[in-house]
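Structure (tokenized):
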């Protein structure tokens, strides 16, 4: 009798193993079919006759950051770079005109201590900021206007390198006891392990550079970068220069990314033949004529908010009075922290907590 029971149990386990193997085979086959279908679709888009579809695909993939590799599967780096160059937005010529920014000094009376938007008067709170909910056709987000630009600075790491790991914007805000924070410039992603990012700063189209409190923390002194940052006069600079020129000119806190959205009061223009780069989570920084700083974060790639295009970001900055403004890193890095809480909805493709970033723009508190 015991032998019959053992044989019966063995038969059951054999059946279980057989069905398990069949299920696994079906799953693997399904995954392979999906993968082959996607690769075929990408190949047809990349090598197809429709230039518009190909350009839309390339720009969208590069914009996502994490999916950038898809654009390079069947196209060379030169082809991808040419498509991206063709679809660059047009920025006003010349250097940042510092005379367009008039920051009230100590003891000076401000003509208008409030923020006027569409005829509505918005009062600064006791922390000297105005927090606004924004909504467009394809997005929702937040705008934070900071009255005193000297309170906005770059937070980063004590040192950068391939052996370093960044920190989340949320963690940077807590470590600095900041009132608010948004993500800053880009960073290299470590393939296969998205928890180990942020140790190496990156620009949108070049290597990275970081200046914190007047000190060059990362970057080649002789290389040119698209700087986004504040000088010692608390004026937002959005110029291209070498890292050494930036330090010599008195840049106190800066990163590089882009594109520039508004320069010297002139909104950047999306070429008519350019393809829509898509709707994505985005972060941007700008400065009004009175010196106040505009921080914008738009949710994206979610049911409640598809995201914003560059046109949308330009429109937002113009609406809130930006004289100069620039796009910061977006995608999974985009979110805003206020009073130690994340107040926007970050998009997470890989569920491993907040992204570790290289830099963030933080807003100091008014103590007491």
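Design, position by position:
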């Amino acid at each position: 009798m015991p032998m019959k029971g053992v044989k019966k149990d063995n038969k059951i386990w054999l059946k279980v193993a057989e069905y398990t193997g069949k299920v696994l085979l079906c799953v693997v086959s399904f995954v392979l079919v999906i993968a082959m279908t996607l690769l075929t679709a990408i190949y047809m888009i990349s090598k197809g006759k429709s230039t518009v579809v190909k350009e839309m695909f390339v720009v969208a993939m590069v914009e996502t950051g994490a999916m950038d590799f898809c654009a390079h599967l069947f196209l060379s780096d030169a082809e991808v770079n040419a498509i991206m160059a063709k679809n660059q937005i047009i920025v006003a010529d010349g250097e940042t005109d510092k005379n367009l920014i008039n920051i009230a000094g100590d003891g000076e009376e401000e003509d208008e201590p409030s923020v006027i938007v569409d005829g509505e008067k918005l009062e600064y709170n006791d922390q000297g900021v105005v927090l606004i909910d924004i909504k467009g056709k394809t997005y929702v987000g937040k705008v934070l206007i900071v009255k005193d630009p000297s309170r906005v600075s770059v937070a980063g790491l004590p040192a950068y390198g391939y052996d370093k790991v960044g920190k989340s914007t949320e963690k940077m805000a807590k470590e600095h006891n900041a009132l608010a924070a948004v993500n800053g410039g880009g960073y290299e992603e470590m393939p296969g392990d998205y928890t180990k990012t942020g140790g190496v700063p990156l620009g949108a189209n070049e290597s990275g550079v970081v200046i914190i409190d007047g000190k060059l923390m990362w970057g080649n002194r002789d290389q040119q970068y698209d700087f986004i940052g504040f000088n010692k006069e608390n004026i937002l600079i959005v110029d291209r220069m070498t890292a050494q020129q930036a330090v010599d000119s008195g840049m106190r806190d800066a990163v590089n990314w882009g594109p520039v959205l508004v320069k010297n009061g002139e909104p950047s223009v999306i070429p008519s033949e350019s393809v829509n780069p898509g709707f994505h989570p985005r972060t941007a920084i700008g400065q009004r004529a009175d010196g106040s700083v505009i921080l914008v974060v738009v949710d994206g790639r979610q049911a409640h908010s598809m995201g914003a295009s560059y046109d949308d970001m330009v429109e937002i900055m113009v609406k809130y009075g930006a004289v100069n403004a620039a796009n910061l890193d977006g995608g999974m890095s985009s979110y805003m922290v206020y009073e130690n809480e994340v107040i926007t909805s970050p998009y997470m493709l890989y569920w491993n907590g907040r992204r570790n970033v290289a830099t963030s723009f933080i807003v100091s508190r008014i103590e007491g």
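Reviewer-requested clarification: The two ends are 84 Å apart (CA to CA). The mean pLDDT is 86.
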